[in-house]
Each structure stands twice: as structure tokens, then as C-alpha cells.
Specification:
The complex is a heterodimer of chains A (about 425) and B (about 100). Chain A contains ten helices and 18 strands. With about 425 residues, chain A is α/β, with parallel strands linked by helices. Chain A folds into two domains: about 25-75 and about 180-250 and about 345-415, 3-Layer(bba) Sandwich (FAD/NAD(P)-binding domain); about 115-175 and about 255-340, D-Amino Acid Oxidase, subunit A, domain 2 (D-Amino Acid Oxidase, Chain A, domain 2, 2-Layer Sandwich), CATH 3.30.9. In chain A, the strands form three sheets. In chain A, strands 1, 2, 8, 9, 10, 11, 17 and 18 form an eight-stranded mixed β-sheet that branches. Chain B is about 20% helix and about 35% strand. Chain B starts with a strand and ends in a 5-residue tail after the last helix. The chains are: A alpha/beta (about 425), B alpha+beta (about 100). The interface of A and B includes residues 244 and 250 of A.
Chain lengths: ~425, ~100
């Protein structure tokens, strides 16, 4: 069923009784051309672009739990392409352009709202770094505007410009950045993939890989053996656990990132504001809640929940930046388990096992990458060559010394 | 998380910083023929276990001792705490 205003009107006349589930729940077939392990944003986007571009292939998405129950449902919904390095910026700008056309592409309301992102700076060297970053963005076709303190005061009069420790001198603004409805992204891709014939199989955990002679020919699952010519794993957060079943160790640690939502408030925050120096970022959802977060907790964990010191630290950062939110009450908080890679950048690559491909290491920024990650992983699976925007995301960059380290902190995942 | 320090008793985890897997105690021999490969494994590759995990914590805001903590990464339960120097000597390092 194609979604449209007319359809809503027509269904309303029939008491909304005519809506159907937007994807099927098929039983797994014994054999596919491609299996995607992981029914989150990246896995579903991969299946969608693979099925759309290479029609007539059999594709299954295997999800351990229910569709979109992991990090695609736990992030803070920010989309942006304000990266510095050559390995990253073209990829994220590709993603930003895909976001801009996503709702028309999928015929699904993902509530994409381009209200901009502002990264604050507090010192002259930080301003210089922002200018450099903005230039790198513009060179790669993205948009960037340097805001002086006066311009920023007009946009965000509520900021604590005269903070004694971090006085705000201005910000780097990317007007095209914004937020998207995270669940709707998973649902939209699932619906689109399903319409192109992809079998989305939920509650089907991969328990092992069928590997002989260095070739992967299928997976063992809780619903039996399923064979395929090519298997792509997109399970960020659990990458090490899943790839260990194929005997692989990864340059990844699993960490927890916490996120928070306040009670609903009147519209006050014009877009996304990041306060890197104070470990805090915030946006306002369409329902009015302030959606905010800060640093990862900093220790290995798979628990999908964090601890209180970081809650305190994030809230302190928020109140230091915008004292007006001091009276707002925290409504909900949760944690997501993220793949922290050794240089803070992702991996989309073949493995040393033929037929087995890997997509992971997204650190705390996988959501914005969802469309481009899907395109790049689909391209890699179909052609065996990396997509033009994802050439740098190789496993061997660590052994060869070609790290993509935006922060320049080295192989210490909890500092990225 | 409360870490029961072997010398100082129960301390809040906030006082500590985290380095990572306790196998980092064993730095590879830089003179070995396969040193480059060994240092690549040492620096970048991790087991990243779900469940019991031995890891290095530094008591930065306390007595500045290094600890080896065995902790469950699924529940955050701390199972044992030892001074890293004791562990290193037991596992064959001279200091």
C-alpha cells in the first residue's frame, strides 16, 4: 500500500481498519543469495539498497530479536556531515544527501527535520580548528557557516556566553544537519526491503557460521541452517561476539552510551547544539522533550545501561551551558551498547574468510551513517569492491598505519 | 560501581580511569622477528568478551595504583580486585 494523504483520508472513512502490516513475517528458506545478519538500521538499509539495485536476488535479513530493537532505537537521532578527515567526510556527506531524499525514496515519513547543528567553540585555537573543519566540509560539498558570538546570540540567546571556564566565542553551524525519527528509519527501510522481496526474519539468532576451507557458505541459526553465497554482518554493538563465532578478533571494544529525554517543553532549542568542552549535546524533539547526551561511560560493557557518575556529568554540562534547563525534569534515560573502534572510525570490508563481509565499529555515531552505510555495504557485497565513499574503512588500515582518527587520541577506544 | 581496593577498601569507580583488557600487561618483545605483527595485535586487537573480563583500572584520584579487576561486562558485577603489580609478577614479569 502506497502511503499518501488520500490513503489516510480513505482509511479514516473506514475507521482505520484497512491498514495492513508493512512487512511480511516469512519462514526462512534453506538457501539465499545474500544473508544480512542484523535487522537494525544498517542491516535493513543494506538489504533495501541491495534488493533495489540488484533485482532478482534472494536476500534474507536475520534478526536475533525484533526488528530495530537495538541501537537504531536507542540513539539521539542526529543526522549531520561535519567531519574533518578525507576518509570520513565524503562518506558522511553522501549519507546526508541520501537523508535529504530518503522520505520520497521510501515513501515513508521519517520526520527528517533539517534544523541545523552548531558546534560551539570557546578559545581562539578552537575557532581556528572550526574554520579548518568548515573548509574541509565545504571542499567535500557539504555546507558550513562560522557563527560569530553576535550571530550566535541572536540564534541562541539562552546560552551561558559568559561561562567562566568555557566562555562561548561562537560556533560552527551546518544548516543542513538535523534530526530524523529513528524508529521510522528502520521501519521505512524494512518496508522498502520487503516490497523488493527481502525476507525479514525476526527472532532468529545466528549461532554459528558454516565455514570450510576458508569459505563461508551459510549460518547456523536458532531456526536451523540457512545457506547463502554471501553473508554480511551488520550488528554494531555486538560485533565482537558475532564475529568470534567465525573465529575473528576485531579492533573494537563494546562500550555504553547513555541518552536522556526531559519532560516536554515549549519550542526553545533551534536545532542541535553540541558543547564538546563540557561533554554535552542537546536537541529538542517534535514532542518538545529535550533529547541530550554526553560521553560514553568508558569501560567495556554489553549491559545496555550505564552508571550514575555519567548521568551527573551530562546534567552538569547541560546546566552549565544553558542554565534555564535547570528546572526541567528528566523523564527517561537509557543506554546503548556501541562498537568503539581503535581509531573512532567504522569498518566496511571483506574478511579473510571468503563470502563473509563485515560492517561495524560505528562508535557513538552510526545512526547518521545509516543510508550511506547501506549503499556502501550493498555495493561491497554485490561487487566485492569497496564503494567509492567507503574506501578507507578497511580492516588492514590498523596494520598498515592508515588510521582515520578524527580526535587524534590513538588506540584508546574510550577516548574517541 | 564500587571497587574494593586491596589497600584502601571500597572506593567509587569515579575515582578511577580505565585502560582496557588486562592482557595489555604483557607488552611484546620489540626485538623478536615478528615484533611488528605482535605489536599490531597488542595495540589494536581485543577479545572484547561478554561476561567475565579482566581489565586494568588506574586509581587516578586515589593512591595512583594500577589494579587488575575481574568484572562481568553483562551485569557490571565486580568479581575480584588485585594490584596489577602482583598480577604482573605472578605472570612472569620482573616488575
Amino acid at each position: 500500500m502506497r502511503h499518501s494523504a488520500f490513503q489516510i483520508f480513505k482509511q479514516a472513512l473506514r475507521g482505520h481498519a484497512g491498514w495492513k502490516p508493512i512487512w511480511r513475517s516469512p519462514d526462512p528458506k534453506p538457501h539465499y543469495d545474500y544473508i544480512i545478519v542484523g535487522g537494525g538500521g544498517h542491516g535493513l538499509a543494506t538489504a533495501y539498497y541491495l534488493a533495489k539495485k540488484y533485482q532478482g536476488v534472494n536476500i534474507a535479513v536475520l534478526e536475533k530479536n525484533w526488528l530495530g530493537c537495538g541501537n537504531v532505537a536507542r540513539n539521539t537521532t542526529i543526522i549531520r556531515s561535519n567531519y574533518l578527515l578525507d576518509g570520513n567526510e565524503p562518506f558522511y556527506e553522501h549519507s546526508m544527501k541520501l537523508w535529504e531524499g530518503l522520505e520520497q525514496e521510501l515513501n515513508y515519513n521519517a520526520m527528517i527535520s533539517q534544523r541545523g547543528i552548531i558546534n560551539l567553540f570557546h578559545t581562539d585555537p578552537q575557532r581556528d580548528a572550526s574554520v579548518r573543519r568548515g573548509n574541509a566540509m565545504c571542499l567535500n560539498g557539504a555546507d558550513a557557516v562560522l557563527l560569530s558570538q553576535e550571530e550566535l546570540r541572536k540564534k541562541c540567546p539562552f546560552l551561558n556566553f559568559d561561562n567562566a571556564r568555557f566562555p562561548i566565542l561562537g560556533g560552527l553551524w551546518q544548516p543542513r544537519a538535523g534530526t530524523a525519527r529513528h524508529d521510522a528509519v528502520a521501519w521505512g527501510y524494512a518496508r522498502g526491503a520487503d516490497q523488493h522481496g527481502v525476507d525479514i526474519i525476526q527472532n532468529c539468532e545466528v549461532t554459528g557460521f558454516l565455514i570450510s576451507g576458508g569459505i563461508c557458505t551459510g549460518v547456523e541459526t536458532t531456526r536451523g541452517q540457512i545457506r547463502a553465497k554471501k553473508i554480511g554482518v551488520a550488528v554494531a554493538g555486538s560485533s565482537s561476539r558475532v564475529m568470534a563465532k567465525a573465529g575473528m578478533r576485531l579492533p573494537i571494544e563494546s562500550h555504553v552510551l547513555q541518552a536522556f529525554v526531559s519532560e516536554g517543553l515549549k519550542p526553545i532549542i533551534p536545532g542541535v547544539i553540541t558543547f564538546g568542552a563540557g561533554h554535552f549535546y542537546v536537541s529538542q524533539s517534535n514532542k518538545g522533550g529535550l533529547v541530550f547526551g554526553g560521553d560514553i561511560d568508558g569501560y567495556n560493557t554489553y549491559a545496555q545501561r550505564g552508571n550514575l557518575p555519567v548521568v551527573e556529568d551530562v546534567c552538569e554540562g547541560g546546566v552549565a551551558l544553558m542554565p534555564m534547563i535547570g528546572r526541567a525534569r528528566l523523564l527517561r534515560m537509557w543506554g546503548g551498547c556501541v562498537d568503539m573502534s581503535m581509531d573512532g572510525s567504522p569498518i566496511i570490508d571483506k574478511t579473510h574468510i571468503e563470502g563473509l563481509y563485515f560492517n561495524g565499529g560505528w562508535c557513538y555515531g552510526g545512526f547518521k551513517a545509516t543510508p550511506a552505510s547501506g549503499v556502501a555495504f550493498a555495493h561491497l557485497l554485490a561487487t566485492n569492491t569497496p564503494h567509492g565513499t567507503a574506501k578507507a574503512y578497511r580492516f588492514d588500515r590498523f596494520s598498515r598505519g592508515f588510521l582515520i582518527d578524527e580526535k587524534g587520541v590513538g588506540a584508546q577506544p574510550n577516548l574517541h | 560501581m564500587i571497587i574494593v581496593h586491596p589497600l584502601l577498601g571500597p572506593r567509587d569507580a569515579q575515582e578511577f580511569t580505565y585502560l582496557g583488557d588486562a592482557s595489555l600487561i604483557h607488552r611484546p618483545d620489540p626485538k623478536a622477528d615478528d615484533a611488528a605483527e605482535n605489536f599490531y595485535e597488542y595495540l589494536y586487537q581485543r577479545d572484547n568478551l561478554a561476561g567475565e573480563h579482566r581489565e586494568l583500572w588506574f586509581h587516578e584520584q586515589g593512591d595512583r595504583s594500577w589494579l587488575v579487576i575481574k568484572r562481568n561486562t553483562l551485569t557490571h558485577d565486580i568479581l575480584s580486585v588485585e594490584l596489577a603489580s602482583d598480577v604482573a609478577r605472578r605472570e612472569g614479569r620482573s616488575k
